[in-house]
Amino acid sequence: MDFTVIKHAVQVDHGVKHLSMRFIKQLAAPDRARLSAELCAQITKELGNLGLITLPRRLPTSENDSVLVIEKTSTLGQAVTIASKLAEFDRIGGNPLPSLFENHPGARDALTP
Predict the structure, then answer these.
(1) Helix (H) or strand (E) holding 17
(2) Contacts (Cβ under 8 Å, ≥6 apart) of 5
(3) Is 48 within 8 Å of 1 (Cβ atoms)?
(4) How far apart are CA 6 and CA 10, in angstroms?
(5) Residues 6-36: tens digit of each pLDDT
(6) What is the pTM of this model?
(7) Which element (helix H / strand E) includes 98?
(8) Measuring CA to CA, which residue among 2, 85, 84 is closest to residue 43?
């Protein structure tokens, strides 16, 4: 899997790029018929090795969906990382701000890897 094209696109667009899962699949595994959860996890790991994160944190398996690919070191990337940690705390019952995800129910799903 060579995602340097994505890394350069993210850098050109100031740290964030909106990409379709179809495009990501073409780069990752053009010979595969569909995206699996395992392939999406592997893609996430490879992007992480390049200093990139996605939102939603768990990549969708539908080629019709789109994701944001964000540079980890950017301000937005750091904010997503912090929010993801808070979502993980919430999942295990240790959220210091319990009403946060009650007020923003869609955020928990997008931020949980």
Answers:
(1) strand 16-20
(2) 27
(3) no
(4) 6
(5) 999 999 888 999 999 999 999 999 999 899 9
(6) 0.84
(7) none
(8) 2
